[in-house]
Hints:
765 residues, TIM Barrel, 37 strands, globular, single chain, Jelly Rolls, seven-stranded antiparallel β-sheet
Amino acid sequence: MSVPEDDLRGRVARLTLDEKADLLTGANFWTLRAVPEIGLRRLVLSDGPSGVRGVAWDERAPSLLFPNATSLAATWSVPSAERAGFLNGAQARDKGVHVQLAPTVNLHRTPLGGRHFENYSEDPLLTARIGAGFVRGVQSTGVAATVKHFVGNDSETGRMSYDARISPSVLESVYLRPFAEAVRAGAWAVMAAYNKVNGTSMTENRPLLTEVLKERWGFDGVIVSDWTAIRSTEASANAGMDLEMPGLPSSRWRAKLAAAVREGRVAEELVDDKVLRLLRLAARVGALEGVPEPPPVTTPPDARDQLRGLAAQGMVLLRNEGGVLPLSPGSAIALIGPNAVRFSAQGGGSAHVNPAHVVTPVEGLRRVFGPAFPVHSGVHPHDRLAPLPIGMATDPETGERGVRLEFIDADGALLNSEHRSAAHFIILDGLPPGTAQIVLRANVTPATDGIHTFAAAGVGAHELRIGSLSTTATLTADGLDPVEALMRPPEHRMEAELSAGRTVPVELRHATGGRGAAFSLGYQEPHLPEDEEFAAAVAAARAAETAIVIVGTHDGVESEGFDRTTLALPGRQDALISAVAAANPRTIAVVNAGAPVLMPWRDEVAAILWAWLPGQEGGDAIADVLCGAAEPGGRLPTTFPASESDLLSPVPDADGTLAYAEGADIGHRHYAPDDIAFPFGHGLGYTTWEYTSLKLQDGVAEVTVRNTGTRPGREVVQCYDASRLVGFEAVEAEPGAEATTRISLDGEPRTVRAGRSSADIRLTG
């Protein structure tokens, strides 16, 4: 939309210096203050990119949970990225959110990166195209996309301070490329990262913030800090930062920024430009009176069906020996694996949202294969308990399904009491003033006899009561990153022998201080010892026609706040798959993970389906793909290594330096061919393809393919110059039919190689 610049400048001129400086720091954790005198309404920001959470981490305001970002990139479809962006924007409009903190366009420099699942790809071109499509989709709804984290924020270890040492040429061609394309797509906001690049903190990095982003690329939007990333006044303001988030008592701008202007350390013209950018953003998102608001947009009624389709489109069929997939809906199956029982729909950290419901694999497969098949976890790899299932609990005050949450001051007085439908709570802002303790109370009715395990989780002092039993503990976090304490909280367990159907009162007291709190009540039902559970799973597999084993990671492994230390699956999952495959030659492994894992059993199973972290509709999407109702349309957007022998480390040196010594050779350009389990771009689908012709003219590759199988299918045609991806497009064709696509090539490739993956080239021109 056209923004009236003269009008915006006039509004800036009506503000005093103190008012301008005050506007450039958040009002609280998620919002910017309104200035009615110039027609500025309150601006609301929200995390992404797995969905739009809004201003509260609260089950009472559920959000659509999308497949993780790498799953979206696995579609290799810019239209799908735009559609996902549109749905995010529609959710934002419904929640009154003006600015979504997404997409994340940092690269998969190493599969050990904890936030790997939240990023698109190892490849700068694929990341750039998918990211730009997402930006266009979000902003088509009148909501600002915020491209993050600018730049070199590719690891979590020491992320607040490490110094990414990247050569200028590699920085330009690889790590800046996705940001540049997002800016060209019209992004209205960019988030500056915590880390340093080549010796300078990103929030103080004038060469990148001002000279590259604002001047060379012509970015006219707002540069917002990652939360608490601004640690100076003068240096960050002069470097090009526009907005400090969040608003805290320790903020470095606000009154300090006004003082810096009065003392001549920051030019007032710079402050005016920052306010102008903020008003321009407000005009674009409909938060400025006198400027037309964007047309109404709302979440479409078929949004859940669209999420289901996106999840299936991103799933990658890695192996399918003998055409074991797709399965007939009448197949006799056994469902095995820890992620079949405790499904991972999303990763951890600021991308986390609260969906109204997650469709589990058990639910999805029962809709296809009926209710009678056996289900066994096989192993217990989780090191923390899941939150108490709300279906077991009732509020002791009202009798409603759920729990009672009470906020108590230091004198024991009740400040507030509320009904909640969760057992895990993250309250970043908005505790009742004076809260010293939060009490969770519930009446719990177990479904089985035996030893039930409960846990208090979170940093601080806890008292847990189960009936007449009680225990206390003061828990501390292992790491220094505050997000790690949220995602991998310490826990203290206690056991209680309970009877099926007999209600017992449960109470958890959590001491807190300050503005926020994070704690949960964990639970595990009675279960077999792992050796017995393992044996039962193998026996069930042996008796079934087909064994489906769902393994993977969880948000204690893949999350913001920490990196992975290994690519191995947690616990004894590898041994479980091998044992099941030995018992049943028709074993299908479904991997529920956002980032690569080692698969030493990959040649032992009949099929491998990579399901990613597929969001709230994931269970149905997995069932759709396994039975052939949907094509597994994905192709790998990142290389899957065969071992850990040559992984790039995400851990800085002792002096805080993270050297990108590999230069541009990340992903498939880094690994030796024999150390790749599945190559970049790989994916089988349910049909076969012949590449019949390649024509090159004026920077365009015209590629014709023929569907040589017996089912309709989707093929992602990929073009490479040596080892560099230079273009891609997806085509669809019926059995026996040809399809031709025209692919605009990136740069000036000398030799174009077209094929099915970086390791499966079919034509050269």
